[in-house]
Amino acid sequence: MPAFVFRLQILLDHKLDIEAKARAAVIEKRRVLEEQQSILLRLVESEERIELAISRTRDELLLAAVTNVGADVQRKNDYLAALRQDLSAAHDQTLVQKFAVEEAEMNLNEAQAHALECLREAETLTRYREKLEKRFFAEAAKKEELEQDELGTTTYLNRRAEV
Question: Which ranges constitute the DSSP H helices of the chain?
Answer without folding.
Answer: 9-63, 70-162
